[in-house]
Amino acid sequence: MKEIKAIIRPNKLSGLRDALIALPGFPGMTVSKVEGCSAPSRHISRHNIKDELTDYTPKVRIEIVAPDDVAEVIFQRVTEVAQTGHFGDGLVWITEVEKVAFVFKTTQGAE
């Protein structure tokens, strides 16, 4: 199993969701609103402390746990759909997952 995480622009989420749902074997995803900033060398220099403290931009974090054979396809789809060609498009990465279990309770029928 692999975990695919991505930080993307919020306006790319709807299109990405549609693209991922269309993939065979797509297991679903968790989405969170986050804020972030890039490395200072990628932007113009900050002139005062206010610029440095307000440099955070809204992003969306996506987390997906998928079988190995589906993970690479998901990774490729995210990088294709989420890009605009500008700094700040986001980041995608894959990590190994040692163990996974669904958390749910089934109800037993009357005996």
What would you say this structure looks like, in words?
This protein has helices spanning 13-21, 49-53, 68-82; strands at residues 2-8, 30-36, 57-66, 90-96. The protein is α+β, with helices and mostly antiparallel strands and 111 residues long. It has one domain: Alpha-Beta Plaits (2-Layer Sandwich). The protein has a four-stranded antiparallel sheet, with helices on one face. The longest helix is centred in the last third of the chain and has 15 residues, at 68-82. The N and C termini lie far apart (37 Å). 13% of the residues are buried. The model has no long low-confidence stretch (mean pLDDT 87).
Tags for this model:
26% helix; four-stranded antiparallel β-sheet; Alpha-Beta Plaits; 111 residues; globular; alpha+beta; 3 helices
At a glance:
The protein has helices spanning 13-21, 49-53, 68-82; strands at 2-8, 30-36, 57-66, 90-96.
Discrete helix count: 3
CATH class term:
Alpha Beta
Number of strands: 4
- Unreliable runs, pLDDT <50, ≥5 residues? none
- Portion of residues in beta strands equals 25-35%
Q: What assembly state would you assign to the polypeptide chains in this entry?
A: single chain
